[in-house]
TrEMBL record:
Residues 1-23 form the signal peptide. Keywords: Signal. The keyword Signal applies. It comes from Geomonas silvestris. This is Outer membrane channel protein. The keyword Signal applies. It comes from the Bacteria.
Length: 449
């Protein structure tokens, strides 16, 4: 039933695409990537990777009575040499494809097809239907339901760990432009039974409830908060708080705090639960916290200076990351450039696989430049990592990224990327990419805007 529903919804979305040509407004975006690389590592057979991947996005607005629209985004991949990702020489997926109808009152809308739901603590991909509307006295409500979108199966399990059906929604109250609070929940049908006995008590169904808050007493201050509870484990999965203050016209300061309980947060992830004990701590009861602050100052119309600090705390260790960046943007954004420095200072036991003599501390230096004109565009990005202690005999790692492209027409661009890296795992790593991008907006009966 799940496969039949998914195929029906995908067909429904594809059937609506020809309407884009007759829409009052619409857009077409297509990107084709041809990537080439050589995978050569000690003890592993050498491979030549040459995957060709195409992305296609279509939007058609003002259909039918002008309130209906169609939206589509999908991708496909074909390996022209060795297999690059899985056992399939070719692969593809529908990211989203849905019809949307906007009603004339109460900010109401309805969707049908494959789409993403982002409402408060909810972040789901669904094959089904959804609706939302404002209610009197500042209230609002939204709801969705349908089939889950299954991902690639986890090796050795024959499943991705998801149930077949999912539904949920959110109720909110908003007071002017100053305050909004919401309550939301997600209920997924029973997760499949996994054969691995080690997953007992570590993996289960995806069922979460939570609340979110936005508060802005004045235009220069905004506070956001969220928290979610896993109803299967009975524990708080995560909570986060973000405060943004603009004390001066050109100065923005932020502070944040996040807390995660691994077992409650990843309880419905079969992949995480199946990790070896040395990676997941076996009982999945680790707690992770981040506390950070940043400041951004617009020096003038060209230069912006930022500084940031973040403290990470886990049951197995802690770390600090701090640094700054200077960005420069010339008039008309024809040239953007900048440089940054950050330092990550961590304890030895902060690593995923702790060792007595390891150190995850390193300096990060970066410089980049991007230029875009009517005829061509180019970019260069250099990142250097300097380790506090040698890793496999190496003191540093280097990454170089370069890109050069040409606007063949106002709607068609051809570009190429080349990257080089040197790190403890690979002495030399060279990758390349060719990209063809087509983007067009339509008005009226298919006329180009």
């Amino acid at each position: 039933m799940k496969k039949v529903l998914s195929r029906f919804l995908a067909s429904l979305s594809l059937a609506a695409l020809p309407a884009a040509a007759c829409a009052a407004d619409g857009s077409v975006d297509s990107t084709t990537l041809l990537r080439f690389s050589q995978d050569s590592r000690p003890g592993v057979s050498s491979r030549t990777l040459l995957p060709a991947t195409s992305f296609l996005g279509l939007d058609a607005d003002k259909l039918a009575d002008g309130k209906l629209s169609a939206h589509f985004l999908g991708w496909g991949r074909a390996d022209l040499a060795d297999k690059s990702f899985n056992e399939n020489q070719a692969d593809g997926s529908l990211t989203y494809g849905y019809l949307q109808y906007r009603f004339g009152a109460a900010n109401a809308q309805a969707r049908a097809g494959r789409f993403f739901v982002h409402e408060g603590i909810i972040n789901e991909q669904v094959d089904g239907v959804s609706a939302r509307t404002d209610l009197p006295y500042g209230f609002g409500v939204s709801a969705f339901g349908g089939a889950t979108v299954h991902n690639a199966r986890i090796p050795g399990t024959g499943s991705d760990g998801k149930g077949d059906g999912i539904f949920g929604g959110r109720v909110n109250y908003r007071y002017g432009g100053m305050f909004e609070i919401g309550l939301a929940g997600v209920f997924e049908t029973d997760a499949p039974t996994m054969a691995d006995p080690n997953l007992a008590g570590r993996f289960g169904s995806h069922r979460v409830i939570g609340a979110d808050l936005w508060y802005s007493p004045i235009s220069k201050v905004a506070f956001m908060a969220r928290t979610s509870v896993n109803t299967e484990t009975g524990g708080v999965a995560e909570q986060g708080y973000l405060l943004t203050v603009k004390p001066l016209k050109d100065l923005t300061v932020t502070g944040e705090f996040n807390d995660y309980q691994d077992r409650d947060l990843f309880y419905s992830s079969a992949l995480f639960a199946a990790m070896p004990s040395m990676l997941s701590g076996n009982n999945l009861n680790q707690e992770s916290r981040t506390l950070g602050a940043s400041a951004s100052y617009q020096i003038d119309s060209k230069f912006e200076l930022t500084g940031d600090y973040k403290h990470y705390t886990r049951d197995i260790g802690k770390a600090d990351r701090f640094g700054g960046e200077l960005r420069c943007t010339l008039p008309d954004a024809a040239l953007r450039t900048g440089g940054s420095y950050h330092y990550l200072r961590s304890s030895a036991d902060f690593a995923v696989v702790p060792t007595s003599d390891a150190s995850g501390s390193f300096h990060e230096l970066r410089a980049y430049a991007m230029r875009d004109t009517k005829s061509y565009f180019a970019s260069l990005d250099v990142i250097d990592y300097l380790f506090k202690r040698d890793i496999d005999g190496k003191k540093s790692a280097l990454e170089l990224y370069g890109s050069l492209g040409y606007h063949l027409t106002p709607n068609l661009a051809l570009s190429g990327d080349l990257s080089y890296g040197s790190n403890p795992q690979n002495t030399d790593e060279l990758k390349g990419l060719i990209r063809l991008n087509y983007s067009m907006k339509l008005a009226g009966k298919g006329d180009t805007k």
